[in-house]
């Protein structure tokens, strides 16, 4: 029984590591939410911003949701849209994360107010997307993917859709896992040619220098492999079991607010006043295979495709080792902006510097010594600290219609 309790506690804390928005406290029981309404209807349209829902289907059969958001005050999405910009969330998050802060500090609303044609992505498995053409979420096959498929299938299909609808190259913004996806995808010529410029918040391609002892302990325990061996293919803390697990670990036993800072790094400016609102929508499910792929990156210090083992790699790739994603292939002509923080225990500064050395180009950098991993999307001063600089970068790329 003690092993089960320890595993449950570990799972809850691993979720906190990568989700970054879960804060548990006594009395919070709002972990189950209705999935009957859309992201537009639940979060964006009530604020007065026009929003439309779109769907795309990936080559391997997943049906994904995208949202398109325009300026406030009754603006028409289809009339004189500004330059398209695509927002990609991180692990255990959905497109809602770009609208979780106050209107004045949420990047999705800020970009719309500046005249951008805002598009929001939601990867497979998240609550806003729409499943699979053949599998249900109860099928293990539904969860047979990692960030590799998110980059090469989900992101590729969503970018292609926005490119075709707008007839324009797009600006890209990603956070955390959204940067892993971008750097992998942009190394593929057919995807990067549709991108005008990209901004990466807490950029990750290497994870070899994570120094947080808790994360390293989970890696050394092979928690990821334990999940797969136990037949747990989905990591979902909004299932009945997941809700009970989070409540039992956090309620009266663990101060998850403190753990959030302890694990991700000290977040200087996290908007704690909106915790109840965050928990209404976060976290979203992901796959155990995805967690396994991330832990492989930590163990090996590599930025490579999923490792199936010697024989599995031969069958999958034709090589005994998984091929690396070569970010040196990202064109020098692609303008890049990166924002990272000195208190980020996930996107370690040394790993960011490793990424910078491999790129052909020299990205424009914003380094905030006091910022942690979550501050870049949920800081009470994100607009002033981060987004003004980012928008200045996009303006410098020469697209019209940005106010």
From TrEMBL:
GO terms for molecular function: hydrolase activity, acting on ester bonds. This is Lipase. Residues 1-24 form the signal peptide. Keywords: Glycoprotein, Hydrolase, Lipid degradation, Lipid metabolism, Signal. The keyword Glycoprotein applies. The active site is at residues 176, 344, 373. It comes from the Eukaryota.
């Amino acid at each position: 029984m003690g092993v089960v309790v320890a595993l449950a506690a570990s799972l809850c804390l691993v979720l906190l590591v990568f989700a970054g928005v879960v804060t548990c406290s006594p009395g919070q029981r709002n972990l189950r939410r209705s999935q009957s309404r859309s992201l537009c209807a639940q979060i964006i349209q009530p604020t007065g911003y026009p929003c439309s829902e779109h769907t795309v289907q990936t080559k391997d059969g997943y049906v994904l949701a995208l949202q398109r958001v325009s300026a406030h005050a009754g603006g028409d999405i289809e009339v004189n849209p500004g330059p398209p910009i695509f927002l990609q969330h991180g692990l255990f998050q959905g497109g809602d994360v770009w609208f979780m802060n106050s209107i004045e500090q949420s990047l999705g609303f800020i970009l719309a107010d500046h005249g951008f044609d805002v598009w929001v992505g939601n990867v497979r498995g998240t609550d806003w997307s729409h499943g699979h053409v053949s599998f249900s979420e109860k099928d293990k096959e539904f969860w047979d993917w990692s960030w590799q498929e998110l980059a090469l299938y989900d992101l590729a299909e969503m970018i292609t859709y926005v490119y075709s609808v707008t007839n324009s190259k797009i600006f890209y913004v990603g956070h955390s896992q959204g940067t892993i996806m971008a750097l992998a995808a942009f190394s593929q010529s057919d995807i990067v040619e549709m991108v005008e410029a990209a901004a990466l918040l807490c950029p990750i391609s290497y994870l070899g220098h994570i120094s947080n002892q808790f994360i390293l302990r989970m890696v050394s325990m092979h928690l990821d492999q334990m999940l797969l061996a136990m037949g747990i293919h989905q990591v979902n803390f909004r299932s009945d079991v997941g809700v009970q697990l989070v409540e039992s670990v956090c309620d009266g036993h663990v101060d998850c607010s403190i753990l959030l800072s302890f694990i991700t790094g000290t977040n200087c400016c996290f908007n704690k006043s909106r915790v109840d609102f965050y928990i209404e929508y976060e976290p979203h499910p992901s796959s155990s295979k995805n967690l396994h792929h991330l832990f492989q990156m930590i163990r090996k210090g590599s930025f490579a495709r999923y490792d199936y083992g010697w024989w599995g790699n031969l069958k999958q790739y034709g090589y005994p080792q998984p091929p690396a994603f070569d970010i040196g292939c990202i064109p020098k002509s692609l303008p890049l902006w990166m924002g990272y923080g000195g208190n980020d225990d996930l996107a370690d500064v040394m790993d960011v510097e490793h990424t910078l050395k491999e790129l052909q180009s020299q990205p424009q950098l914003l380094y905030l010594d006091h910022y942690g991993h979550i501050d870049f999307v949920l800081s009470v001063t994100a607009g002033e600290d981060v987004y003004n600089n980012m928008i200045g970068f996009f303006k410098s790329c020469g697209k019209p219609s940005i106010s």
